[in-house]
Amino acid sequence: MPKASKVVETATRLTVRKTYKLYIGGKFPRSESGRTFVADGDNVALASRKDARDAVLAARAAQPKWAGATAYNRGQVLYRIAEMLEARRGEFTALGVPGDEVDAAIDRWVWYAGWSDKIAQVAGGANPVAGPFFNISAPEPTGVVAVIAPASLLGLVSVIAPAIVTGNTTVVLAAGPQVAITLAEVLATSDVPGGVVNLLTGRYAETAPWLASHDDVNALDLTGVDHPELAAELERSAAGTLKRVLRPGAATDFTADPGLRPMTALLETKTVWHPKGY
Amino acid sequence: MTVTVSAGLSDLRSFLHGLPGVDKVGVEARAAALATRSIKTDAKAKAIDLAIRMVDLTTLEGADTPGKVRALCAKARRPDPADPSCPSVAAICVYPAMVKVAAEALAGSGVHLASVATAFPSGQAPLEVKLADTRDAVAAGADEIDMVISRGAFLAGDYTHVFEEIVAVKEACGGAHLKVILETGELGTYDNIRRASWLAMLAGADFIKTSTGKVAVNATLPITLVMLEAVRDFRERHGRIIGVKPAGGIKTTKDAIKYLVLINETVGDDWLDPDRFRFGASSLLNDLLMQRTKLTTGHYAGPDYFTLD
Amino acid sequence: MFEYAPAPESRSVVEIASSYGLFIDGSFDGGKDGNVFKTVNPATEEVLAEVTSAGPEDVDRAVAAARRAFGPWSALPGSERAKYLFRIARIIQERSRELAVLESLDNGKPIKESRDVDLPLVAAHFFYYAGWADKLAYAGFGPDPRPLGVAAQVIPWNFPLLMLAWKVAPALATGNTVVLKPAETTPLSALFFADVCRQAELPAGVVNIVTGAGDTGAYLVAHPEVDKVAFTGSTEVGREIARTVAGTGKRLTLELGGKAANIVFDDAPIDQAVEGIVNGIFFNQGHVCCAGSRLLVQESIADELLSSLKRRMATLRVGDPLDKNTDIGAINSAAQLARIKELSEIGSEEGAERWSPECSLPDRGFWFAPTIFTGVTQAHRIAREEIFGPVLSVLTFRTPDEAVVKANNTPYGLSAGIWTEKGSRILAVADQLRAGVVWANTFNKFDPASPFGGYKESGYGREGGRHGLEAYLA
Lengths: 278, 309, 474
Hints:
The complex is a heterotrimer. Chain A has helices at about 50-70, 70-85, 90-95, 100-115, 120-125, 155-165, 175-190, 205-210, 230-240, 260-265, and strands spanning about 35-40, 40-45, 125, 135-140, 145-150, 170-175, 195-200, 220, 245, 265-275. Chain A is an alpha/beta fold. Chain C is of the alpha/beta class. Chain C contains 14 helices and 18 strands. Chain C has helices at about 55-75, 80-95, 95-105, 110-130, 160-175, 190-200, 215-220, 235-245, 270-280, 300-315, 335-350, 380-385, 400-410, 425-430, and strands spanning about 20, 20-25, 25-30, 35-40, 45-50, 150-155, 175-180, 205-210, 230, 250-255, 260-265, 295-300, 355, 370-375, 390-395, 415-420, 435-440, 460. In chain C, the strands form four sheets. A seven-stranded mixed sheet of chain C has the order 13-14-15-12-11-16-17, sandwiched between helices. In chain C, strands 8-7-6-9-10-18 form a six-stranded mixed sheet, with helices on both faces. Strand 10 of chain A pairs parallel with strand 17 (about 435-440) of chain C, so a sheet runs across the interface.
């Protein structure tokens, strides 16, 4: 992504540059491999399969508590993300993200924040079975979601928000490392518990297969994979543990109303029966 | 007996409330499933004869007269005058005032004589009156007493009161067998039916009986199932076999066979015996006789060929 | 002793032809390559009929017929599609005795189950989805939901006609057309269903039935002209299908294996819990993906519960599936029997204690006595692998936390049971169980309005209820 306005370096003061690291378990570690790659002039951490493994561990560890938080609480946290993103709007425009895209990303967090305590009512409910039984279906998060994210800020937000609003935790492989890690900084200052979102920068082809085949990953979102061969390979690999796989068309329009599907595809439906009688 | 009156109200209460709960839907589904058993040919023939031998042929009307009771006794001895192979019923069940007549009519027949007592059917009388009622019936010749519990006291949680009444009536029975009517239709829940069953057994009942036949809900399969489970568990704990008597509303052979299936698959052989299981019924007998005739003759029977007493 | 005389349901209410073709484009015809296989009555090993083994060309023809029918069928007003489904439901009700006997003959399940469970649920399922056909815009999947096209549906042998209903009813209600492959050992009720479609005057090609073994199914799900794949069966085959479908853009729903925990707490309604345990594992010979095959009982009542369970098991009547008093029928096939025997042997070898009530099994046919293993731990194979037979593994726990951990400690997540009289405990445990269906103080209950399907390796997607429409809508 081109940088529209790099901070001007004056002769009198050398600016302090940002080191773009990974975001795992609420911390910003370098890659355990010690590798970096150059992206748009910055040295960026190049995530390894072991970083992916660590990120899955962090996501798994964070999942029960995040899912167990009240929906109201998760909604508050997502709204807080919107607040922080609004406050850091300039950082993203400085990275070249168009202003209206940042606005849309902020608004998307707000939209999903509101869903936290409504999706269960829309996606679940009482079932009128033919017998003396109380029967109710309710959605639950599927667990740990590996997300191969699209590069744009709006795309990134549009895949992370629907995953976590319902109580999933995520391991996100992000293109556009500066934008992704800056977003991680927003998340880190937004009351999002460590491990709920983990962001890895690097090469999809190297790390994605490790996530697709990981036995402790419940779902795989392939939105950001534009190479059909890689997508098919990842999908085949995900079949090993019958992961839920999201594969919207490559040309997803992130400015459109997302609908329910990005959330419901990462939800399980649990149906509980109980007799009625005294 | 692990629970005694001297152990006090709180022990009895905690014991009864500590019994496993009964899930209504589950017990009704189980009873309904057993009711689909298909009992045919010789199994049916045997079941009919057993059911006849389990009948407490009953008349409990204000209009009962010596003549009516004598007729019923004759029916009890020889239910089907046309077929000497037809067994007698288990017992006649009448009001205390009719015991003397019935005792004379049944003399030497082997048919037992049961009398309802204890201010049947409401049980709303002082204990002394109930005990006198019982003693009179036994003195007049009843060898089985069907008493009612005080549902009011039970529902008020006064288990000791109910317990002590049963103990006192049992004592007043002397050698007569005591059937304790729980009036399950007034107890409201299956949990209460299980508790009342245990309460009666602990207090010395020889039989537990569902109903007086005088309220809206009388014997049902699931109620009887809960009571059978109680006598089964009681035997396991105390080694004593208590009988069960569903009463009221059992009118057809099909109904009766369902109860026998229930016994067969929950408590087993030991209760397939007139000493351990009775039907409190009146019109049931004629249907059993009609079905019996159908099996022996091969054609359908008609009601005009059986006595209306 | 009260012995029940034999009470056989009449076999003559169903007429089985000596051979069957494939149902393609509204009529029966033989396969192109002339291959056939036999379907047998597992209770007697008697051959019931010869059935056509569909080859690639046959599947091609069936898919092509479904493709041709898709246009007009999906263009029908929903209210008209609804009426076809209502017709089918009614015909099934009218022919339910015949179909129940047929199902018991081909599958081996007791007539009381095919009569009182399978067939009523089959009819109810068609009634339920019939009503959705003209109300799809209100189902919550967008204002103008569209059908996907041709659905390839592969179903198992444990509930042949019911699984067909679960697949066909929602597919047709939403405007899709169908090529369905019934299981190799139980093809007959699907072929009779073809006749039901004919009686209902369902347009040709809307439902096509291709019979055959695994390779027929594999060819069907891989077919490029198929838009949607729905499979119920083993997790192993489900995995293969997921791999096959990967990258094709076909929609996929899978309803796979399970190893459900049935958790009994010390305050359970014991007598009903015993019934629930028995129903959970011995219903349909344990050939049930959501069977309660792992009993988790609280240690403090384990002895009492087990003695009640054994006493109850001694009353189970194993034998002739057509006898109205049979509780446990025949194992569906020799192959399945071999698997059940093998895993049971392993259970004994691994040190679990095996018990079955005394029961005499028929000489011919495939039979397995109801069996429980006690002293089982999480490490035993019989606690981890789906046996798909009348075999229960009994484990114990001390606290609710331990029960939840053990219940969830499996790659499967289809169903679970909870028995306790304490409401708050039910809700908390149900919340924590990773399973798509949780039965509290009941087990193995099914209803067309109630979504069914698993977590984790038990598959994805839901069948039944409003949720069941999603799998067939774009």
